[in-house]
């Protein structure tokens, strides 16, 4: 992994350019989420008071996550992009991208040509080393899952699953992606095989219970969650499983079962937890 050099002045510059999206030029479309711009040259929107756009390359660091490699800035003059010479004292700068990062504009071939950029930077190959290995593919899926881009996580996760299905963490990431996308039937066989291989991992039961609840298989979901709660040493995870079952019985208007799971939710959740709030809301709206 490459050392990240911190540059205060440049950091301040990017805070202003990345943090605002106003008066975009017609030739630049700031409509792309950063995780959809991996391995692309991009520009960030500017403030009204600025005359330049920050640009660079977005890539996925397999260990650290989505990263923006800052190049320099450009101006738009007569429908062409003109790069501003990079200050030799600045060196390089890389910024980890967070979920609240603004939309970016992916540069087209003409714009890349205007800026005299290669299709991809030479250094990118360093981050592609081992890209067909299971560990790399699993991490790639994890990073997409982590930002809610589960539709992009499936491809690397399924490729890895076809090679070594029981690789540490892989089955959970694949099942999580399926569940997030509402593909509950696809998640179940992955989780069943995962549990057969490692019955001690309570996360598998949590995800399987979620799949079953959403398929209205309430009886099996309850059995699964009870096992998960028994195996778990994490009260937050226990409270999440409990509130999911409480909600299921709230929808069915089964008061006895709802009360059982409401009690378990309150047992494991912190008093200020949103799960406790959910239970109170269910109770207040029971007859509505």
UniProtKB/TrEMBL annotation:
<keyword id="KW-0732">Signal</keyword>
<keyword id="KW-0802">TPR repeat</keyword>
<dbReference type="InterPro" id="IPR011990">
    <property type="entry name" value="TPR-like_helical_dom_sf"/>
</dbReference>
<dbReference type="InterPro" id="IPR051685">
    <property type="entry name" value="Ycf3/AcsC/BcsC/TPR_MFPF"/>
</dbReference>
<protein>
    <submittedName>
        <fullName>Tetratricopeptide repeat-containing protein</fullName>
    </submittedName>
</protein>
<dbReference type="InterPro" id="IPR019734">
    <property type="entry name" value="TPR_rpt"/>
</dbReference>
<dbReference type="Pfam" id="PF14559">
    <property type="entry name" value="TPR_19"/>
</dbReference>
<keyword id="KW-0677">Repeat</keyword>
<feature type="signal peptide">
    <location>
        <begin position="1"/>
        <end position="21"/>
    </location>
</feature>
<feature type="repeat" description="TPR">
    <location>
        <begin position="168"/>
        <end position="201"/>
    </location>
</feature>
